[in-house]
Every structure is written in structure tokens, then in C-alpha cells.
Design goal:
three-stranded antiparallel sheet; 6 strands; mainly alpha; hpI Integrase, Chain A
């Protein structure tokens, strides 16, 4: 167990066990109440992200919760902007602060009468909407990894473990945290399925593997993981170093794949591109959108729109295919004859 503390108006203590963060406490009873609520009602990764984002916020603003106002939030935004953080990252961290104050308004409305990030609840009135501090984000169109770059990445990796992770994130469209949370009991080899017990938002679902992924996974378990003595129930563990036998972390996998990408001279690669690529390929292959959403853990129908508009060439090809079903011969004859009858 290790303990960390930030030097701020609110101090945070982070407890680790087995290489994983298992508890986060602060010197603020209000923040502890909120984190306890999130831990009981939301997915583990949601609780962890909220805890770390709040720790960062209060480390920067150095005040107590009841002293947080618009100036402190602007100070945080300026610091994050100066550090080069993306709009989406800043908004995500502001959302953690906003969620904290939504709960504190319910807990003690006299001490916390207003949410400094978003003073008014969402409304159709433009003036109220503009009171929010969230930064405007352009609609993001996710990139994909080209086939030749996927092949380069595969050649660059050293282990069957890493190949199995790449295939799960690409072909099965798993998030990193979902792949790392897989335990032995979650896998059903007979139908190539994996039970994802705690997806984003805490919603469980079933995903599937192709034969190549299953082969890579079996090679990893037989030839690499089998040599490591560990009590960890998780499939993916560290194979060497001081963390040997402990479950991999999201950060370690991100760094690992970034390292492999650099070795393969791949520019602008990040691990989540594998999931983007897999979802895009499923849609372009004609898989029904409701089935894609269920597989990848998207609950809202509009969530696939960025992937539908991703590839202009795909749209052009689909348009050309659609024209083959139209009866245009008679119109072509008119053009050949010079137009009007």
C-alpha cells in the first residue's frame, strides 16, 4: 500500500494495493461524501476518474469546497489551457467538479446554493446555457488506423499478450479498461464470447472474438502468462519488472502501445484509435447499427453518427452502388438524342 497527498487547500490520500488504486480519501467531508456516493452508484473507472480529476482541481485552486466560485474555476481552466490540455479533457474535468456541486447543493443548499461550473440547469434559453463554463467543442470525427499501419504495429509488438490486447481493442472494439478488466470466468471459448461486467456507465454486455483473437489469447495464456506465478484473477498482467504478476493499468497499456507505434514510425497513433477503427469497419461492412451499438456499448442511436461520416470514399462507393438500382437508361437515351423531344 502506498499513500500520496497533494499540497492544496484540500488534501487527498490515495491508497494502492496490488498496483491498483483501491481508495481515495480527502480532508473534506463533502468531497468524501460525493466520492462515496459515486463509488456505490457508478462504475469503478467512473469513480476513479472523478477522484483524480477532483484531486487535480483542488491541487490547483488551493481552496476548500465552499470557497470555490467562478474565479477559481477560471483559474483552473487557464492552468489547464496553459498546460496544453484539449478542450475535451478540460470539459471532462469540469464535469467532475460540476457533479460534485450538484450533489453538494442537495446535501447542504445553504452552504452550496449554486454550481459554479454550470449555475443553471440545462434550459432552452440561450442566456442560461451560456452561463456554463464548458468550452465549445467541434464535432469530432474519429480517425482510423490504416491496414498497413495495423500490420506495422503487429510486427513491432513483442508478446502474444500485446497482440491479443490489440486484437480485442480493434476487432472486438473494447476500451482499454474493458480489456484489462477481463477475468478467466468472463470468457466462454465455445462461442468465442466475453462478458464485459462493467462497461462505460456500469452497463454489462457481451462481446465476441474472431478466431485470430482467440488464437492469440490462447498463445499468450499457454506460453507467457502460464510461466508467471500470480493470484490475480485478471487475464492481462505484467510479465516482467517489479509489477510482474500484477494486473496491467490503463496508463501502462497506453504507454506500451505508444512505444510500439514509435518503433514502427507511426505518427499520431493512440490506443483508442484501435476501437475507432474496429467500429468503423463493422459499419462499413454492413453490420446493422443496433447490433453495432450493443456490441460496443453505445446506448444512444446518435452515438454512431461520427463513424457514419468518417470515410468520404465509403460514402462515394455506397452512392455508386445505390445508383445501380435506378432505371436511368431512358434518361441516358434522352441525353444521347440531344435533350428535348
Amino acid at each position: 500500500m502506498t499513500v500520496e497527498s497533494s499540497e492544496a487547500g484540500v488534501q487527498f490520500t490515495i491508497t494502492r494495493a496490488g498496483g491498483q488504486i483501491v481508495d481515495v480519501q480527502s480532508t473534506s467531508p463533502e468531497i468524501n461524501h460525493f466520492l462515496r456516493l459515486v463509488k456505490l452508484s457508478r462504475a469503478h473507472n467512473t469513480w476513479l476518474n472523478y477522484a483524480l480529476d477532483l484531486k487535480l482541481f483542488f491541487c490547483i485552486v488551493r481552496v476548500l469546497p465552499h470557497q470555490v466560485g467562478r474565479p477559481e474555476c477560471l483559474l483552473f481552466m487557464e492552468q489547464q489551457d496553459g498546460a496544453g490540455r484539449a478542450d475535451a479533457t478540460i470539459n471532462r474535468r469540469l464535469a467532475a467538479v460540476s457533479s460534485l456541486f450538484d450533489e453538494l447543493q442537495l446535501l447542504d443548499p445553504e452552504r452550496f446554493p449554486r454550481n459554479p461550473v454550470s449555475p443553471f440547469r440545462r434550459s432552452r434559453h440561450e442566456r442560461r446555457h451560456r452561463a456554463s463554463l464548458y468550452r465549445t467543442q467541434p464535432t469530432r470525427i474519429p480517425n482510423v488506423v490504416a491496414t498497413e499501419h495495423l500490420q506495422i504495429l503487429f510486427r513491432a509488438v513483442h508478446t502474444w499478450r500485446d497482440r491479443a490486447l490489440i486484437l480485442l481493442m480493434w476487432i472486438s472494439c473494447l476500451r482499454i479498461s474493458e480489456a484489462l478488466a477481463i477475468q478467466f470466468d468472463d470468457i466462454e471459448c465455445s462461442n468465442h464470447s466475453i462478458q464485459i461486467r462493467a462497461g462505460k456507465g456500469g452497463h454489462p454486455r457481451m462481446v465476441y472474438m474472431d478466431s485470430l483473437t482467440l488464437e492469440a489469447l490462447n498463445r499468450y495464456l499457454d506460453h507467457e502468462r502460464g510461466d508467471v506465478v500470480t493470484n490475480a484473477p485478471y487475464i492481462f498482467i505484467a510479465l516482467k519488472g517489479s509489477a510482474r504478476g500484477h494486473p496491467l493499468s490503463v496508463n501502462s497499456v497506453q504507454k506500451l502501445l505508444a512505444y510500439h507505434a514509435r518503433r514502427g514510425h507511426l505518427v499520431d497513433f493512440h490506443a483508442h484509435l484501435l476501437r475507432h477503427t474496429g467500429i468503423t469497419q463493422l459499419i462499413q461492412a454492413g453490420m446493422a447499427e443496433p447490433a453495432v451499438r450493443k456490441l460496443v456499448g453505445h446506448r444512444h442511436p446518435a452515438s454512431l453518427e461520427p463513424y457514419l461520416h468518417l470515410n468520404d470514399q465509403f460514402v462515394a462507393d455506397e452512392f455508386a452502388t445505390a445508383q445501380q438500382g435506378l432505371e436511368l437508361a431512358s434518361y441516358r437515351a434522352l441525353l444521347t438524342e440531344g435533350g428535348a423531344a
